[in-house]
């Protein structure tokens, strides 16, 4: 898969959006765009960043992200260890745009 394609990530309900930076997690891509998403460990264990993927596909950067099979099936993801594999829409009510 080409790593030069930049996927767009939209956060709801705020409507904030940013580009997935190739090789970075969704979380770090958001932070690069000055959009703050809840986070703590940034390595897929604490679940602070856990949010719902409403559309799109992700790939994980680690083999065992801290989610149950049921949570994955329900669409929960850990953006600190995930990369967009398509354009995404995420539900993150606590996302903060520091420009506002
Ligand atoms: S920040 Fe800890 S699991 Fe994502």
UniProtKB/TrEMBL annotation:
InterPro entries: 2Fe-2S_ferredoxin-like_sf, 2Fe-2S_ferredoxin-type, Beta-grasp_dom_sf. CDD domains: fer2. One of its GO terms (molecular function) is metal ion binding. Keywords: 2Fe-2S, Electron transport, Iron, Iron-sulfur, Metal-binding, Transport. SUPFAM superfamilies: 2Fe-2S ferredoxin-like. Residues 3-96 form the 2Fe-2S ferredoxin-type domain. Pfam families: Fer2. Its cofactor is [2Fe-2S] cluster. The keyword Membrane does not apply. It comes from the Bacteria. The keyword Metal-binding applies. Belongs to the 2Fe2S plant-type ferredoxin family. This is Ferredoxin [2Fe-2S]-type protein. It comes from Herbaspirillum seropedicae (strain SmR1).
């Amino acid at each position: 898969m080409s790593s030069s394609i930049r996927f767009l990530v939209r956060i709801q309900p705020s409507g904030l959006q940013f580009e997935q930076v190739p090789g970075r997690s969704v979380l770090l891509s958001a932070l690069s765009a000055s959009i703050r998403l809840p986070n703590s460990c940034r390595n897929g264990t604490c679940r602070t960043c856990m949010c719902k993927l409403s559309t799109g596909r992700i790939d994980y950067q680690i083999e065992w992200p801290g989610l149950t099979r049921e949570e994955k099936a329900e669409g929960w993801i850990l953006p600190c260890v995930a990369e967009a594999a398509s354009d995404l829409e995420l539900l993150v009510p606590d996302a903060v745009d520091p420009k506002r």
